Amino acid sequence: MEQTQSPHLALVPDVFDAVIKGIDYSDNRGWIPWAWAALVRAGDVPEQLDESDEDYAAHVITLVALGYLYERFQDVYAGTEGDDELMIEVLGSDRPFITDIDVARYCERHGYASLEDPETGPGLLQEAAKNRRVEVKARLRELLGDGRLFTSLVISGIPEPEPEYDEDGREIETPRPGDPLAENAFDDQFAGVTSDLSNAEAYEWLTR
Questions:
Q1: What integer pLDDT is reported at residue 163 of this predicted model?
Q2: Spatial separation of the C-alpha atoms in residues 35 and 16, rounded to whole Å
Q3: How far apart are the first and last CA of the chain?
């Protein structure tokens, strides 16, 4: 099947960095931008985050939810209990961050409330991201299929090979094959990942 051209993403650096730094696992192969690109192709989110967009806060929460989903999957895949507390810090008084009021309005619109930390920005953000994580997981399953989504998450958590150096001590740069945002970017690993029965618990978590 012919692949749709990949979008040209422009995620706000400060917000994207906050997501990456706020999760316990390295996104070694760019799963979060790849998943965002899938949502872009479906028309769910924009290619570029515009701070003046009335839906800016909702889009930031979606980006946070992708990081949250990636982290939680890696916990389950590693067989650890993990900590479901959200550590991604995107709250602030000014753009590009979102405010407590932004999150409160989002939660009010969606009917979310924090029972543990009522009326606090971090508590409401935790609740918003947790619910959005469930929604975005279901949406990615719908858009990508269970096997492709599962493969992408597994492969993205595998550390990249150690760099190689030339005789002068300079690192040899090896370009990644293909388009890292393409829908089929992880498909060449599909058979090996999905045939490993030790992954059953993580697959069950992802698909329920």
A1: 64
A2: 13
A3: 28
pLDDT for the residue numbered 29? 86
Nearest to 65 by CA among 26, 15, 104, 108: 15
d(CA 74, CA 93): 31
Distances in Å between the Cα of 170 and the Cα atoms of 160, 165, 173, 174, 176 are 18, 5, 9, 12, 18
**Which regions of the chain are under pLDDT 70?**
1-8, 82, 114-119, 159-166, 171-177, 190-198
CA distance 138 to 123: 23
The sign of the torsion formed by the CA atoms of 122, 66, 198, 155 equals negative
CA atoms within 13 A on the CB side of 5: 3
> Which residues fall within 8 angstroms of residue 204, CB to CB, at 6 or more apart?
none
Instruction: Identify the pLDDT of residue 3.
Output: 47
Domain regions of the chain by residue span: 13-162+173-202
The answer to whether 88 and 68 are in contact (CB under 8 A) is yes
Angle at 19 between CA 35 and CA 149, to 5 degrees: 25
